[in-house]
């Protein structure tokens, strides 16, 4: 058997974010989050709903990469034209995504970097659906390269998703739907269960991947992290590895983390 | 009507909505006709793809209302990026859901519709969006998403008759029907034009996404979504998107490449990409 890769460990860790969510739409954007949602549905959480990546709901997660178009078997219909009515604005969704920046409040950015809104230095996608996603339903994050460029000091350049920043909350606004769950990176798993000196929610490390230290994670993060009751991130079991391989027959996961390292550092 | 008649009915400074979603079912033939015209200073409202990129590159856009501009497999639309990074266009950046909410407000003749979306982000401040307070006991503070009123909307459909009975066969209408209802005039280009829908396809009426009272004119433009996708007729042309994206770097100057991506006429454009057969052979994308 080949070595378990760090990408596979991350998929396994990401899939835990979808455990016990109930009958909601699990959306994983990008190979690792998408494989994680599929793994969750095929193991501990069969009640999850998911799309084929386009307009239909499927009960068998669709493998990633090239394949015959008709492999997909639609069980339901969830086109973009119904997405806000059905999935987002009803709170019946949990998305796992990879923004460009995330700050200590959990505010995220995928709109632009540097310069000004009138003339950005680097224009990216635009806010897409992040403002709505983050105020209405749970969100988790995956980052393949943990660094201070992602986990930025201060605040993100453009707040595209709601976080736990008291200064950003207007009186009378309903923020009860803001629910940031899990952050999985190539180094660790974090959540928002910490509390900082001001009594606000803070990001804390809850597990470290094999061979990674808290100090290493802290050094790669642009803001102070809290320590949870830190354990070692568990390796995926044989069943999980088999499902991951079946959902990613072309091995696209090998290209997600630089140099595709093993889960256990040599 | 002909595409040139549609464009002749548009004026400098108008607010124009464009249907479709990113690289999907964009009325590209009508967009190309705008690119062949002298129209300018437009406010474009779109879930953007190459339609937005091309109009920005050609200097047609004064203001853009958007939530994203993307070609999916090429996530960052390179000509849109150039326009943004040079500061040449004014923008109103919105969440995808707020965007359709603004179209609905316009459709219903309301000044705004309330939403939680946008609270806690930079959107309200950057876009000058105001809040309203619920007059009921909850007293909730909400963003007042202003109506996105359109002078004209452009959409591309699989089939229509001359009255504007439009059929869409793909799995997703996106928000095309709301673009149509939000607009003073909506122009539809279609792959197939029939005289009277009821005489030809009475069993297909459930494919009708919007009532014909919202359609002002219909243009027969086969392959009119190319290079975007037109399910189930044809997929997107990723080779064409790639060539278009590469041209943003080299030579990087729209004027020198416009002819390749727009053509002197729609017929010349279609011939340059290998004709209708080549478009029909484009496989549907998989995800």
Automatic annotation (TrEMBL), chain A:
E.C. number: 2.8.3.12
Any GO MF annotation of the entry: glutaconate CoA-transferase activity
Keywords: Transferase
Keyword hit for Transferase: yes
Gene3D superfamilies documented for this protein: Glutaconate Coenzyme A-transferase (3.40.1080.10)
Protein name: Glutaconate CoA-transferase subunit B
